[in-house]
Amino acid sequence: MFDNLQDRLTSSLRSITGKSRITDDNIQKTLREVRKALLEADVALPVVKEFIAQVRSTALGSQIAKALNPGQQFLKIVESELVKIMGDANESLNLNAQPPAVILMAGLQGAGKTTSVAKLARFLKEREKKKVLVVSADIYRPAAIAQLETLAGEVDVGFFPSTADQKPVAIAKGAIEHAKKQFFDVVIVDTAGRLHVDQELMTEIQDVHAAIKPVETLFVIDAMIGQDAVNTAKAFNDALPLTGVILTKADGDARGGAALSVRQVTGKPIKFLGMGEKVDALEPFHPERIASRILGMGDVMSLIEEAEQKVDKAKAEKLVKKVQKGQKFDLEDLRDQLQQMANMGGMSSMLEKLPGMGNMAQMAEQANVGKQFKQMEALINSMTPSERRNPDLLNGSRKRRITMGSGTDIQDLNRLLKQHKQMAKMMKKMKGGGMSKMMRGLGGMMGGGGMPGGPGGGLPPGMGR
């Protein structure tokens, strides 16, 4: 979602980060470019004006003059102002209430409300260890009730049945009563949406809100509708005491303006980002991490959290023990590593979260590294277990069988074997710890100098061919 804004902002700021002195002149020129980039990203005009004014006044203040590296200091000012626009820190859900804590979901039709209910239920069950009940008070779209029931089964949370001939208030009250008897910690109430804001919708949702007194009232916005999302949020905020926002479809190619504007316009924090169709695709919204990513400064914390949740720890520990004992790194280990990387969104997703690796992530994407990793996995899957454990067995006829079975050619297989040999050598150097040896080995794999942008920097040999 932020790719276009990231490209524009980093190129706008590149001209000033190398400067030894910051002057009124080069600040004006850079801010003009920053302003254009923000407006192109569909950020609300009042928000852009305030942002530019804040950056200008801070940059021209005394702290910039005393900085050792004024160019980098200016970048830091832009980053901290971006964080301020989006909210100073992640605001988690406030569930400190006598159980069951009630969460009311509001929003327009098609924003991804029902899916977000299931995603949030899964998040609370797995991360917060809560017993969750979901209920649909959307009586105008019978499919919504069936959809929520299916999703509740998928994420393994409680579902309270409702029918189209019931009143929304009665449904919500019935679910809360049931939750009290069955000792549920949280009840999430899905409400009806419309294609536009109308009085009937507002009256109904106000009635439900008054009847159940939720601890959290979350507004679900579709990032794809851009600036209109902010206006809709404002209309809902005037009618309901919203406590936060869930921004869905943030994995799409929307321009990112809604994320930068919604906090400033409504005064309500974005609490979660919907990052895809799957029920696990919900991330807490961290303004400081998003700002860092927008400016191409990476997001190591999110990468660590993702690794914590998605990496198979048993397989990782097995490999570590193997390396420490100096045992052979075979093709089955390589396949495990490729699968772990795919679980974390692939090579480009990981690289873009590392500081200064934005260009490398783009290179990886252009070289279609993800496709090559899948090809490598297909090759390994076409081998017998003994061939995976001992690649030296591979003679001409075996190689032909493997390439025919995986729909590849001999060159692809030879490239895989060469890369595996390099990795096996690197793993051997890591026996008994040896982090510096590992880094030297990694440098060799990166093509000589090893550092992106440095001599010989680039993708591992064979990637992108």
Provide a brief overview of the structure:
The protein has 465 residues and is an alpha/beta fold. Residues 442-465 have low confidence and may be disordered.
Notable traits:
alpha/beta, eight-stranded mixed sheet, globular, 434 Repressor (Amino-terminal Domain), GTPase activity, Rossmann fold, 58% helix, nucleotide-binding, 465 residues, 8 strands, 3 domains
What does this structure look like?
The protein is an alpha/beta fold and 465 residues long. It folds into three domains: 3-86, Four Helix Bundle (Hemerythrin (Met), subunit A) (Up-down Bundle); 101-297, P-loop containing nucleotide triphosphate hydrolases (Rossmann fold), CATH 3.40.50.300; 313-445, 434 Repressor (Amino-terminal Domain) (Orthogonal Bundle), CATH 1.10.260.30. It has helices at residues 3-17, 24-40, 45-59, 62-66, 70-86, 113-127, 142-155, 168-181, 199-212, 227-239, 257-266, 287-294, 300-310, 313-324, 331-343, 346-352, 358-366, 369-381, 385-389, 396-406, 410-429, 435-445; strands at 101-107, 132-136, 158-160, 186-190, 216-222, 244-248, 270-274, 282-284. An eight-stranded mixed β-sheet has the order 3-2-4-1-5-6-7-8, with helices on both faces. Helix 3 runs antiparallel to helix 5 (70-86) and helix 6 runs parallel beside helix 7. The longest helix is centred in the C-terminal third of the chain and has 20 residues, at 410-429. The radius of gyration is 26 Å and the shape is globular. Residues 442-465 have low confidence and may be disordered.
